[in-house]
Amino acid sequence: MRDYMDRFDAAGRALALGPARMVEVEDRRGRGVDAEADLLLAAAPEGPLVALDERGRQLDSPALARLMAAWRDDGARDVAFAIGGADGHGEAVRERAALTLSFGPMVWPHMLARVMLAEQLYRAATILGGGPYHRA
């Protein structure tokens, strides 16, 4: 995951994207999705929030790149991507989210979701930069 985040930082620098950073919130098992939502929202910056959820909208990589460029062009300094707990996201996260994004109808473990997200961020930066990484 760190490799893709570093690649995103390098590719995104000239595009005014990044740097990427990962923030883990303290696991509050047994406290419910509302307590997790409070922690996620406290850690999220003021910009757009993307909630990852299997019930979300599926985008292809170029569409994600265009969305990130649009947010950047609209002046968003930070975009946060939130991976929910085992029971999904609390209502407060769903209400605050600019987008609920799905990597497909399957449920992915956190570690895979993190790597997939980091790779897609890097891919988006290379699409916007015209690099050869993404081949459609």
From TrEMBL:
<feature type="binding site">
    <location>
        <begin position="103"/>
        <end position="108"/>
    </location>
    <ligand>
        <name>S-adenosyl-L-methionine</name>
    </ligand>
</feature>
<dbReference type="GO" id="GO:0070038">
    <property type="term" value="F:rRNA (pseudouridine-N3-)-methyltransferase activity"/>
</dbReference>
<keyword id="KW-0489">Methyltransferase</keyword>
<keyword id="KW-0949">S-adenosyl-L-methionine</keyword>
<dbReference type="InterPro" id="IPR003742">
    <property type="entry name" value="RlmH-like"/>
</dbReference>
<comment type="subunit">
    <text>Homodimer.</text>
</comment>
<comment type="function">
    <text>Specifically methylates the pseudouridine at position 1915 (m3Psi1915) in 23S rRNA.</text>
</comment>
<protein>
    <recommendedName>
        <fullName>Ribosomal RNA large subunit methyltransferase H</fullName>
        <ecNumber>2.1.1.177</ecNumber>
    </recommendedName>
</protein>
<comment type="similarity">
    <text>Belongs to the RNA methyltransferase RlmH family.</text>
</comment>
<dbReference type="GO" id="GO:0005737">
    <property type="term" value="C:cytoplasm"/>
</dbReference>
<dbReference type="InterPro" id="IPR029028">
    <property type="entry name" value="Alpha/beta_knot_MTases"/>
</dbReference>
<dbReference type="Pfam" id="PF02590">
    <property type="entry name" value="SPOUT_MTase"/>
</dbReference>
<keyword id="KW-0808">Transferase</keyword>
<dbReference type="InterPro" id="IPR029026">
    <property type="entry name" value="tRNA_m1G_MTases_N"/>
</dbReference>
<keyword id="KW-0963">Cytoplasm</keyword>
<feature type="binding site">
    <location>
        <position position="84"/>
    </location>
    <ligand>
        <name>S-adenosyl-L-methionine</name>
    </ligand>
</feature>
<keyword id="KW-0698">rRNA processing</keyword>
<feature type="binding site">
    <location>
        <position position="52"/>
    </location>
    <ligand>
        <name>S-adenosyl-L-methionine</name>
    </ligand>
</feature>
